[in-house]
Write a structure and sequence with these properties.
19 helices; alpha/beta; 518 residues
Length: 518
């Protein structure tokens, strides 16, 4: 969100604070009286990187829905980002965070940006899913960055280490992760809706949040007016398939470089350099000393294939870092790892995710549906194979109760659904949205061909989302703005870039708009 917009919203706050506070509280009070439960208290609060004041509260929920009066309870925390001009007081846009395991509160600034036009007339509702953020975060201690850099995965028994660390985490948390699946969490979001008195919701989910949104729609269809799914994760797609998506997204960079005279001239052997570095690191680790990317102290680095692939994976999420990759690999191939370790810093973000929720989803909703065929597909990519091995070992420790056998059935709904995909997405490619929408009878799939993961963060999608919500239909949306060129010029040296040419621009894959209507 730009500075001008932030100042505008801050200035508008005194005019909308009272309205935003009274609307949900008044309706919730009526419902609370009927149910003999106290309405949640809303207090002003702030989120990281967001200057707008929100209203925060919590409700208490049973941990085990099957035994609500006998077992433990959990406090579910939420925040309301009030509408600029609350014209639809009985509606809100409920935003679901990704991960699995991300805190919606921590992502408040991202949601505020993606839903900035929708917020003009409707509240934005953020709920920390059980086990994440303020709602009983399930997290265990991990290695600090210095220790991660010094770890030599090539000379360790990764399976034994993973099992040992998972057992320590399990013993620390002492929880049954079966209570933290997507299926179990849906009722908490509905309870928050009822507590705040919203009659209907518009859903927005990003990445794993799209699966959470679909499950909420499946359980509470009458509460939902529209749903926007951005970077779609279907019920019938395993997270193990992300390896193939990452490989395809990486290949697109080198295809684009080959079509760019400037990039091709500067890096004539770009693809072979990457392949050679991958092969070298598969056979042996490279030991060196580098500057810590935060403290700049000299630290030990054991560069391995695992570290390289994770750095590449996270670099694929943004066009700005994608444009660096030919140069980064060129330098690393010549023994200069300074740029590479900058990309490796992104791996540290996983420390903010809920370990418990992540494994609740993987072990309860993913692993039970693996087949010999699907596992063979995962293993075709390095990342897929690594994920498969780690998931097998960890799930054997967690012993999460599988969800119902019909969980993977595609969502059947008449509710208007807008699906958004980035053509360069390294995690949730456009094909995943097509799998999700086969039973959606009022759905439209739009692809931004040059976008990466989460289209609303890098395109005109926020305006389209607002129009979709207002019209409660995607039929009339003009998606031409999604064709905008978003790729960055390749970084060819530490000081300059190679501007894309018409030939390079034409090298990008194109996708058609897909609709599913009955």
């Amino acid at each position: 969100m730009n500075t001008t917009t932030l100042k505008h919203l801050c200035a508008a706050w005194p005019l909308i604070a009272a309205t935003a506070l009274l609307m949900p509280a008044a309706v919730a009070a009526q419902q609370a009286k009927a149910s003999q439960q106290a309405a949640p208290t809303l207090t002003p609060c702030y989120a990281k990187n967001l200057s707008d004041r929100m209203l925060c509260g919590s409700i208490r929920r049973p941990l085990d829905a099957a035994a609500p009066s006998q077992g433990a309870s959990i406090d579910i925390h939420f925040a309301v980002l009030p509408a600029i001009n609350p014209q639809h007081k009985q509606e809100a846009v409920l935003a679901f965070a990704g991960g699995p395991g991300q805190s919606a509160f921590d992502a408040a600034a991202t949601f505020a940006y993606a839903l900035r036009y929708a917020r003009e007339s409707r509240d934005i509702l953020l709920v920390d899913q059980r086990g994440t953020g303020k709602s009983g975060l399930l997290q265990c201690d991990g290695l600090d960055l210095t220790s991660q850099f010094a770890l030599d995965e090539n000379n360790l028994d990764i399976v034994s280490m993973t099992r040992s660390e998972t057992e320590l985490c399990r013993d620390k948390l002492q929880v049954d992760l079966s209570h933290y699946t997507t299926v179990a969490a849906a009722a908490d979001f509905e309870a928050v809706r009822l507590a705040l008195g919203y009659q209907h919701l518009h859903l927005y989910g990003g990445s794993y949040g799209t699966r959470m949104a679909q499950e909420y729609m499946r359980q509470y269809p009458s509460a939902v007016l529209t749903a926007t799914l951005d970077g779609v994760v279907p019920f019938n797609q395993s997270f193990g398939a992300m390896g193939a998506a990452s490989d395809a997204s990486l290949e697109a960079i080198y295809t684009y470089c080959d079509a760019s005279p400037e990039c091709r001239q500067q890096f004539p052997n770009a693809r072979s350099q990457l392949q050679q570095l991958q092969q070298t690191l598969t056979e042996r680790s490279i030991s060196t000393t580098v500057r810590h990317p935060r403290t700049f102290e000299l630290i030990e680095l054991k560069l391995t294939r695992a570290k390289l692939q994770q750095a590449l994976r996270f670099a694929l999420y943004r066009n700005s870092t994608r444009a660096m990759l030919p140069l980064v690999i060129d330098q690393a191939s010549k023994g200069d790892y300074s740029a590479l370790i900058g990309l490796m810093l992104a791996q540290d973000f996983a420390a903010d995710l809920s370990v418990g929720v992540n494994f609740a989803v993987v072990c309860g909703e993913d692993r039970p549906f693996w087949t010999a065929k699907s596992q063979a597909e995962f293993a075709k990519s390095y990342l897929g194979q690594s994920w498969l091995q780690g998931a097998k070992t960890s799930c054997d420790v967690w012993q999460v109760t599988p969800v119902a056998a019909d969980y993977t059935a595609p969502l059947q709904t008449d509710t208007p659904v807008l699906l958004l995909s980035g053509g360069l997405d390294p995690v949730t490619p456009p094909g995943w949205a097509e799998l999700a929408m086969v039973k959606m009878r009022n759905a439209r799939h739009l692809v931004a061909p040059h976008a990466t993961h989460i289209v609303a963060s890098q395109s005109c999608a926020p305006k389209l989302i607002s129009q979709f919500i207002n019209q409660q239909s995607a039929a009339e949306l003009d998606e031409r703005c999604l064709q905008q060129e978003l790729r960055k010029a390749f970084l060819t040296n530490a000081n300059g870039t190679a501007m894309p040419t018409a030939t390079a621009l034409a090298a990008s894959p194109t996708y058609t708009t897909i609709s599913a209507q009955e």
